[in-house]
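Design a sequence for this backbone.
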């Protein structure tokens, strides 16, 4: 699983994900007025993908120049939600190929391109994608009812189930979804529904046994779920993903700052030490050794000397651009497995926090091997922080949702602050780092020479 938050070039990111779709696209957005994104949906529908769109039917939609019927004509589906029939449909999410989820504040509209918006893209996380697909279906059924199903055809169902069983034996799992989708177009018996659920999990071994049993006899198993409980669990999973995505963004910015400070200090530390020392001595010679100005100069000298000595001790690994990309990818995978906010048990939180701090330290130091080692241990259960119990009590779930919402809001506030931090803005405004260092070298040497000449 990989999750990433985006705060700029959002439209381009969505276009890229849509172009990568090979099986299906489900979009639920309040307003959709972006003609280029809509044309992409039509192209994918023409290519035979399952493309479905839900949006609000209001004056914005009604007065838009887009001909929404063209998606239907291309083979897709459009479901308009009239807000007079209930609460405003204000969702903003997309699921691609049943594995990639796009969500956030961004409406797929022209206006949204100039707003301060964000999206989070989570790839290769089928469990989360399934939850959004279920929400898509719930909205569609609420306002449009169930899609008409084909009458149950035992011969066709059995043929497709036989194909699926053969695919399981051949371990060609990627083709199973298409056949399961075709089966779902029919009115189904309870046992066939159960087989489909096993395929969706995916539990192919159990599905294969059930398929073979079905071909000779009928069984009935009914399953019921508490809709409120499931919805809360869905929100918890979404909030956890959102928190981890925000944490990734925060760590990335902090790393940009810390890398710059480290490299700057290593390049100019000796010169800066000498400059600060001469400034302090100049004030002392002038008889200002007790003035506030002298005390400030002395404090600056001592603080930077301490910081510089620590910088020289810190080992920052030198990585190529390719290795830097690998570091980010491995870090994002690892943080999903050890982020403390994922856990409810206090003991597990403490264990996770310890690993999380270790991961952050390795990431800050560009220690690719250490990050790789931590991820390996997490994936293989060596750290033993996999929480086995799951919450099922509604009150506990509500408390969990409340905590995660507060934590998400805290991270959002921290991100706004750090993105507006002058140091960060100054760093990202540097167009050419080599030119900056050349100019900075000349500037500092000039200051140093002037101070020496004043002695």
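Sequence:
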């Amino acid at each position: 699983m990989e999750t990433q938050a985006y705060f700029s070039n959002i439209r381009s990111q969505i276009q890229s994900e849509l172009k990568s779709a090979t099986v299906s696209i489900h979009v639920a957005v309040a307003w959709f007025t972006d003609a280029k994104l809509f044309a992409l949906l039509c192209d994918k529908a023409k290519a035979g993908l399952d493309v479905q769109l839900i949006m609000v039917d209001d004056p914005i939609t009604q007065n838009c120049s887009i001909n929404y019927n063209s998606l239907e004509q291309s083979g897709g589906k459009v479901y308009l939600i009239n807000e007079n029939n209930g609460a405003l449909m204000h969702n903003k999410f997309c699921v691609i190929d049943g594995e990639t989820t796009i969500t956030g504040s961004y409406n797929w509209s022209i206006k949204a391109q100039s707003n301060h918006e964000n999206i989070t893209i989570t790839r290769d996380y089928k469990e989360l994608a399934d939850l959004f697909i279920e929400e898509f279906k719930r909205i569609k059924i609420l306002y449009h009812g169930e899609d008409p199903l084909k009458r149950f055809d035992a011969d066709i169902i059995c043929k497709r189930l036989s194909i699926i069983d053969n695919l399981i034996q051949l371990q060609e799992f990627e083709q199973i979804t298409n056949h399961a989708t075709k089966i779902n177009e029919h009115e189904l018996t309870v046992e066939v529904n159960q087989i489909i659920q096993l395929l969706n999990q995916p539990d192919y071994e159990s599905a294969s046994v059930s398929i073979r049993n079905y071909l000779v006899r009928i069984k009935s198993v009914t399953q019921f779920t508490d809709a409120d409980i499931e919805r809360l669990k869905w929100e918890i999973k979404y909030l956890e993903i959102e928190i981890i995505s925000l944490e990734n963004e925060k760590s990335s910015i902090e790393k940009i700052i810390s890398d710059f400070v480290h490299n700057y200090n290593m390049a100019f530390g000796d010169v800066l030490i000498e400059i600060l020392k001469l400034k302090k001595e100049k004030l002392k010679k002038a008889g200002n050794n007790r003035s506030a100005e002298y005390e400030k100069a002395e404090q600056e000298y001592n603080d930077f000397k301490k910081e510089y000595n620590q910088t020289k001790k810190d080992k920052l690994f030198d990585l190529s651009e390719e290795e830097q990309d690998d570091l980010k990818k491995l870090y994002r995978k690892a943080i999903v497995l050890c982020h403390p906010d994922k856990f409810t048990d206090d003991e597990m939180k403490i264990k996770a926090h310890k690993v999380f701090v270790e991961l952050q330290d390795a990431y800050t130091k560009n220690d690719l091997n250490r990050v790789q080692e931590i991820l390996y241990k997490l994936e293989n259960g060596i750290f033993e922080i996999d929480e086995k119990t799951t919450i099922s009590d509604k009150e506990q779930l509500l408390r969990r949702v409340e905590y995660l919402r507060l934590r998400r809001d805290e991270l959002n506030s921290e991100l706004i602050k750090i993105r507006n931090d002058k140091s960060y803005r100054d760093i990202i405004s540097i167009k050419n780092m080599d030119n900056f260092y050349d100019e900075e070298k000349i500037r500092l040497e000039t200051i140093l020479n002037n101070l020496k000449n004043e002695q």
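The longest strand covers residues 50-56.
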